[in-house]
Each structure stands twice: as structure tokens, then as C-alpha cells.
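Slide 14.
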Amino acid sequence: MARAPDSKSGCWGFESLLACQISLNDHCQYLSGGDRNLAGITGIKENITELSQYLKDSKGEMKKVTWPSRKATIGLTWVVLIVVFIISLYLGVVDLGLSKLVKFVLSV
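Slide 15: predicted structure.
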């Protein structure tokens, strides 16, 4: 089990959850032409296999989605456009009012 970093361990013992994390040791061995080069090719094949499986799973999940009808999509798009227009108009009026107020205060 991975441990969280703390001040006593100097952050040692923490395992990153990043998918593409490469340790410095692996990188140095790869550059020096060690046995890691062949392992890197195997890793690429595994990554391609995992990507392929991910895409198949994603396609299956997309088939389970209940998509809105065309009429509902158009209706909701209009609602969004109208709300955006109203909020833009409101913010424009508030900005204009505050701008005139600041000019008035600074001109006095």
C-alpha cells in the first residue's frame, strides 16, 4: 500500500498515480541501451492493447446512453442562448452604470 508523503520520510514511499510516470532509473537504463529497450517495445504493445480495450468499452457505454430527441436538443439550445443574451445584457448595463459612477466620483 502506498504511503502519503510526510516530513519524516522526506517524501519517500509515495507512489504516483500518474499513468505515464517513468522512474529515473528506467529512463537511464533505456538511454544506455540496457535490456529495458525490449521491455519498452513490450510496454508499447500492452499500451496499444489497453487502448483498444478502452475504445471497445467506451463504444459499448455510448450505446447505453439515452440521447435527447432532436426537438428537446433544439429547445434547450434556445433556452441557453436566451439566458446567455439576458445575462450579457444585464452585465453590460451594470458595467456601464459602474463605469459612469467611477467617472463621476473621480471627476469631482
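Speaker note: The chain is about 70% helix and 0% strand.
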